[in-house]
Amino acid sequence: MSKPLRVLVVSQYFWPENMRINNLVEGFVAKGHDVTVLTGFPNYPEGKKFADYKNDPEKFSEYCGAEIIRVPMLARGKNSLSLALNYLSFFVSASVIGPWLLRGKKFDSIFVYAVSPIMAAIPALVLGWLKKSPVFVWVLDLWPETLSAVGIIRNPRLLSLVGTMVSFIYNRTDYLLMQSRSFDDNVRKYCTKPVSDERLVYFPSWAEDDFSAGANEASDLIEADDSVFTVVFAGNIGEAQDFPAILKAAEIVGNDVPVRWVIVGDGRMSEWLRDEVAARGLTNILLLGRHSLEKMPPLFAKADALLVSLKTNEVFEKTIPGKVQAYLASGRPVIAMIDGEAARVVSESGAGMACSSGDSVALADIVRTMAKLDPARREEMGAAGKAFYTSNFSKDRLFDRLETLFRTATLRRKEKR
Questions:
Q1: 24 and 90 inside one domain
Q2: What does the alpha-carbon distance between residue 177 and residue 77 come to, in Å, rounded to a whole number?
Q3: Which domain does 185 fall in, by range?
Q4: How many domains are contained in the chain?
Q5: Same-domain pairing of 241 and 350
Q6: Which residues of the chain have pLDDT under 50?
Q7: Is 32 left (phi over 0), alpha (psi -120 to 50) or beta?
Q8: Largest CA distance in the chain
Q9: H-type helices in 173-232, by residue range?
């Protein structure tokens, strides 16, 4: 039997925030490994510290057997300045205070959950140097391009400065794991030193197990209703998701077919969305707010189709939103208003129908078409998507692969010494 690994996970976001990294930690503990998490305090997406955490922080110092080490930082708030300070405060605090809190601990591998901001990798590099441990960065967002795409930074000089920081991180990371095959050229661009193919690893996202097992559970969010075609969107409600285009599509469909649009989630455009739905009198759009991950599989099971959308952008074209895997695993048809890699997955899998980003007319046409399909045909789409998920994004396969990478990197480090 292989010796258990000592793994440090560095992530600005962690439980009780709903993040995929929670599932990875749970999975590696279940495999018998010793996992420690270095993170901040929970405040995403609301922008303020979770009330339950404020009342009893000690309750959140352990997760499924993994120890959680939390460093102080500023909350996200609701504006760009507070968000920038939130990013800055975590990587500084984790780089300076993190090593002290982790003193005396040894790790075989350090894994970075690198959604924005990429600066979360800096404390991992500091700890990798101090602990003499290989560092794995799971690249889930492309910086600095993502900052420009969502309008956070537009100044070319500032974007160039961020690019220099990205190069600094990439060049000092032992392994760069890419959530999309389309990331390869972009990542290589910032690796100014020669980078071997073995350092760049395709490592996509997966879906939590519950998404494959929610069909027979009752949902307390919506009731099943065969008289309408139910389209469910779940996730972040931000500028990138292009809700103006979704609302326009809903208006175009109108009463052509009976459609119920169900939107679950929260984000920086939530208030705008509520106001617009009310102003336009779109009574068939249900805004359910943010709910726990556990409530999503039963909700998905009641949907006739699941909607994913992203604005058109060179960066977004290379990205596969994490919800795509969850949608496929749920075995429900997928409607995608998206370009690039994600559209390719939906089309190649046979899971549903896709149109170009921002094309409200095409989205409306897809909704009409799918609503009129024989239910058996929609079931075939869902089954095809689930089979594609099992072959390409299975959690068990991905976790086994990551475990092998950790062991190989540890062995190589020992041989070098």
A1: yes
A2: 30
A3: 6-206+394-416
A4: 2
A5: yes
A6: none
A7: left
A8: 70
A9: 184-190
